[in-house]
Amino acid sequence: MKFKTKAYLSGYYLYAMKKLFVILFFLPFLSFGQFSKGTKYLGGSVSLETYKYDTGAGMTPYNLFFSSHAHLGIFLNESIAIGPTINFNRTKIPTINPATNLFEERRSNSLAGGIFIRKFFPITEIFLFSLEGSAIIGQINRDSMSQFTESKSTIYNFSIFPAFMFLPNQKWGFDANIGTFRYGANYRNPFSEERNFEARLGQVNLGIKYFFGRSNLKN
Question: Taxonomically, which superkingdom (predicted)?
Fold first, then answer.
C-alpha cells in the first residue's frame, strides 16, 4: 500500500484563509435574493497545463495536463444547490524507458462522475462567494510500458474548493476558483492502493454557468 501526501501551503495563504473565514462569518447576514428554490444551472470549466524541460541532450519533452468538468445544479433553497457532476482528465508525461534509455510518452485518460453540493454567500447583488464539495468515482486508463503494469484502475475523489462568482445578467455567471482541497484514492488491484491529499491555494481556475428559471434580482 502506498500513501502520498502533498501540501502546497504557505504562511501567506494561511493568512489569506483566516481573512476569508472572517468575511464568511458576516456574509450570512446579507440577503440579495439572487436565487430561489428550483432554479437550475448548467456549468463547466476547462483547464490546460503544459511545460517543457531541457534534458541537456537536445531533447525538450513536455508534460501535458488537461481537465474538463461539467455539472448540473438545482437549488434546494436560496443559497444551496446540489446535482450531478462529471470530470474528464488527460495527461501525457515523458518517461525514460530503461531498456532503450529514450523518452517514451505515458498517457492516461480518466472519466469520473458523482455528486456535488454548493453553498452560496452573497456579497453584493452581482458578486458571490461559494464553497463547493464533491464526491466522484470513476476509472483511469493508462498506456502500459510493461505487461506487469496495470493499465486500468478505479479512482475515488473527495474535494472542496472556494470560488467567487460574478453575475453580469440573469442568465450567465462566471466563476473564479481560488484553490482546492482534495483527497483521492487510486485502486490498481486488490494489492496496490495509492492515496493522495492535496491542498492548493492561489491556483485560479475559471468557469462559466448558465441559469434556467432565475427570477429578477431584488433591489
Answer: Bacteria
Q: Is residue 211 within 8 Å of 41, Cβ to Cβ?
A: yes
- Residue 72 pLDDT grade (very low, low, confident, very high; cuts 50, 70, 90): very high
CATH classification of the domain holding 47: 2.40.160.20
Domain, as residue range, for 41: 2-212
Asked whether residue 217 is domain-assigned, the answer is no
Tell me the pLDDT of the chain averaged across its residues.
78
- SS3 for the chain is CEEEECCECCHHHHHHHHHHHHHHHHHHHCCCCCCCCCCEEEEEEEEEEEEECCCCCCCCCEEEEEEEEEEEEEECCCCEEEEEEEEEEEEEEEEEECCCCEEEEEEEEEEEEEEEEEEEEECCCCEEEEEEEEEEEEEEEECCCCCCCCCEEEEEEEEEEEEEEECCCCCEEEEEEEEEEEEEEEEEECCEEEEEEEEEEEEEEEEEEEEECCCCCCC
Q: Is residue 218 part of a domain?
A: no
Distance between CA atoms of residues 195 and 31, nearest Å: 41
pLDDT tens string 145-197: 544 455 788 889 999 999 999 999 989 999 998 888 889 887 766 666 778 88
pTM: 0.71
